[in-house]
């Protein structure tokens, strides 16, 4: 993706793309929103607090239902991942290219999940036991088992990137086709396209990424 500007810091050129700027905006908005919505929590909740508690409870039930009670400590990570990913995917509704249609963004998210999955397994069993697990069931399986661990990294990043990029391309093709009919055809008609590719597909890809993250944390730790 072409950088918007490229500042130099300590002699190192850093390319700032639209994906990075959108992510900064999303992080800022979610951070401020979380602070404002949770700073005055009460025992007798109002409508806003009730909605927040319902959201928290829904995510908690999903995480515990898939991973089990012993993985409740992952609730903050999974919850943050779901909200952050959904917001990035839905940014296309604002007429900008979703950051998740950028491979560098999806790869970064996949790397974080990859580290969480494997570091949790090492923390639970120890480095020696983790290494022995890569030799299971036979020592000659080591290259295949190592490759299997890294397949998660490739799979998560490419699946999310491919689906979001395909959605962006298809929406652009629809606008181009409608533009050939007339400028007025681009107003109103693409609503259904945006509802599917930005809203439905964006939510679906968030669910898939989060579900795979939860499943791999559990499976890798218990393998």
What would you note in describing this structure?
With 223 residues, the protein is an all-alpha fold. The protein has two domains: 17-99, no CATH class; 125-222, no CATH class. It contains seven helices and two strands, in the order ββααααααα. It has helices at 18-38, 47-67, 75-90, 103-125, 127-133, 142-181, 191-222; strands at residues 8-9, 12-13. It has a two-stranded antiparallel ribbon with strand order 1-2. α3 (75-90) runs antiparallel to α7 (191-222). The longest helix has 40 residues, at 142-181. The mean pLDDT is 87. GO terms for molecular function: proton-transporting ATP synthase activity, rotational mechanism. Key component of the proton channel; it plays a direct role in the translocation of protons across the membrane. Belongs to the ATPase A chain family. InterPro entries: ATP_syn_F0_a_bact/chloroplast, ATP_synth_F0_asu, ATP_synth_F0_asu_AS, F0_ATP_A_sf. Its main location: membrane.
- Biggest β-sheet description: 2 strands, antiparallel
Question: In order across it, which strands form the biggest sheet?
Answer: 1-2
Q: Kindly, what is the distance between the CA atoms of the first and last residues, rounded to a whole number of angstroms?
A: 39 Å
Give me the Rg, rounded: 21 Å
What class do helices, strands and sheet pairing give?
mainly alpha
Overall pLDDT, averaged? 87
How many beta-strand runs?
A: 2
The outline comes out as globular
| SSE string | EEHHHHHHH
Point out poorly predicted stretches: none
- What is the overall number of helices? 7
| Helicity range | over 70%
- Domains, number: 2
Classify the beta-strand content into a percent band: under 5%
Pfam families: ATP-synt_A
Function: Key component of the proton channel; it plays a direct role in the translocation of protons across the membrane.
GO molecular function: proton-transporting ATP synthase activity, rotational mechanism
Subcellular location: Cell membrane; Membrane
């Amino acid at each position: 993706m072409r950088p918007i500007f490229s500042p130099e810091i300590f002699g190192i050129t850093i390319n700032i793309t639209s994906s990075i700027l959108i992510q900064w905006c999303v992080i800022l908005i979610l951070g401020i929103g979380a602070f404002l919505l949770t700073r005055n929590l009460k025992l007798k909740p109002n409508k806003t607090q009730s909605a927040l508690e319902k959201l928290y409870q829904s995510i908690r039930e999903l995480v515990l239902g898939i991973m089990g009670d012993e993985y409740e400590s992952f609730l903050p990570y999974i919850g943050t991942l779901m909200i952050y990913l959904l917001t990035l995917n839905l940014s296309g509704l604002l007429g900008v290219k979703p950051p998740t249609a950028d491979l560098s963004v999806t790869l970064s998210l996949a790397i974080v999940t990859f580290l969480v999955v494997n570091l949790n397994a090492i923390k639970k069993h120890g480095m020696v036991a983790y290494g022995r697990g890569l030799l299971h069931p036979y020592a000659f399986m080591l290259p295949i088992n190592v490759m299997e661990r890294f397949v998660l990294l490739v799979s998560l990043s490419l699946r999310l990137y491919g689906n979001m990029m395909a959605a962006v391309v298809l929406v652009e093709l629809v606008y181009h086709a409608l533009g050939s009919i007339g400028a007025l055809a681009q107003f109103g008609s693409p609503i259904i396209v945006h509802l599917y590719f930005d809203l439905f597909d964006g939510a679906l890809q968030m669910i898939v990424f989060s579900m795979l993250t939860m499943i791999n944390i559990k499976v890798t730790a218990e393998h």
